[in-house]
Amino acid sequence: MKPFDSFGNKSTSDHWIRFFFNVFFFALLLIRVSYAGVEYHEFKQPEQEQQYKTLIKELRCLVCQNQTIADSNADLAKDLRQQVYEMLLQGKNRKQIVDYMLARYGDFVLYRPPLKGKTMLLWAGPIIFLFLGLLMLFLYIRKKRANEPEGLNQQQHEKISQLLEQDND
Questions:
Q1: Looking at the domain assignment, is residue 3 inside a domain?
Q2: Looking at the 3D structure of the chain, how many domains does it have?
Q3: Domain range for residue 23?
Q4: From residue 74, how far is each of 35, 68, 78, 101 by CA, in Å?
Q5: Of 98-107, 123-132, 140-149, minimum mean pLDDT range
Q6: Is the distance from CB of 97 to CB of 87 less than 8 angstroms?
C-alpha cells in the first residue's frame, strides 16, 4: 500500500482509515460511561443486614420524593444509606434510627408517613379527589341527560309508522 498514488495525492484507503478513526474517536467522546458504584456493606449479623434493607425501603429520598433511599441514586440517598448503616453498626435499633431521621427531616422522610393531623391531607387527598371526580362525572351525566330531547310519545310513534307505511306503498 502506497501512501501516495501516481499523481502525488494521498490514497483513498488512507482517507477511509482516517475517516473511521475520526468517527471512532468522536463516538468515544459522546459515550457517557456511567460509573454506578455498587454499595457493599459488611454486617456482623444477618439480622442487621435484614434490618438495614427494611429501613432503606421505609425511608423516602428527599431529592427524588417518589422513591425510597434504596431505589434512589441521588447523593443524598447514598448519604442516608451510609448513615443508616453506620447507626446500625453503632448498635442503634430501628426505632432510634427512625426517630433520628424524623427529628432531622420530619415526617416526609418516611415513605409511608403516620396518620397525624399534619399528614391527614396526604392520606385523605386521594379519596377527596376521587370523590370530587365522581361527583363531577355524575353532574356531567345528569346535565347531558337533562339536555337530551325526551323520547317519542305513543301518538308520535303512530304518526311515524303511518308515514313509513305510506312511503313503502
A1: yes
A2: 2
A3: 1-33
A4: 13, 11, 6, 17
A5: 140-149
A6: yes
